[in-house]
TrEMBL record:
UniProt xrefs under PROSITE patterns: VOC (PS51819)
UniProt domain VOC: residue ranges: 4-125
InterPro entries xrefs: Glyas_Bleomycin-R_OHBP_Dase, VOC_core
Superkingdom of origin organism: Bacteria
Protein name: VOC family protein
Length: 131
């Protein structure tokens, strides 16, 4: 039997704000409410279900979502980041603010959702043996 990721649940402070933020950056369909979740569906049909209010805010751990995108998609996403004057970083430790990386011959950028509990990464090349 083939294994295929169907959905993941990401706890955050405001499920609607985080889902809307991600779908707008991706240029994707608006998120849909599904019971206590607000879902963004990736292009490979994986559901990212955002949840808020299910656990105490202090119990929310930082989550990370990484999206492999084409160069054209990266350009469009980065334009949306720039248009909104969003903070972004070249690295997951968020030490190189206002820069993108060029790991593996591609481009990558990190940013935080509005509640600052979800780190979102967009890359144009998959990770290899070394950057």
């Amino acid at each position: 039997m083939a294994n295929e990721l169907n959905h993941i649940i990401v706890h955050c402070h405001d499920r609607h704000a985080t889902a809307r933020f991600l779908s707008e950056l991706l240029g994707a369909e608006p998120p849909l409410d599904w019971g206590p979740f607000t879902q963004v569906t990736s292009s490979n049909r994986v559901g990212i279900d955002f949840a808020s209010g299910m656990i105490p805010p202090a119990a929310i751990n930082m989550s990370h979502l990484a999206f492999l995108v084409t160069d054209a998609e990266f350009d469009a996403i980065f334009a949306r980041i720039s248009e909104r004057s969003l903070r972004y970083w070249a690295d997951p430790m968020m030490r190189h603010e206002g820069k993108i990386n060029h790991n593996y011959g591609g481009r990558g950028v990190y940013l935080l959702d509005p509640g600052k509990t979800v780190s979102i990464e967009f890359i144009t090349r998959p990770y290899g043996a070394a950057p």
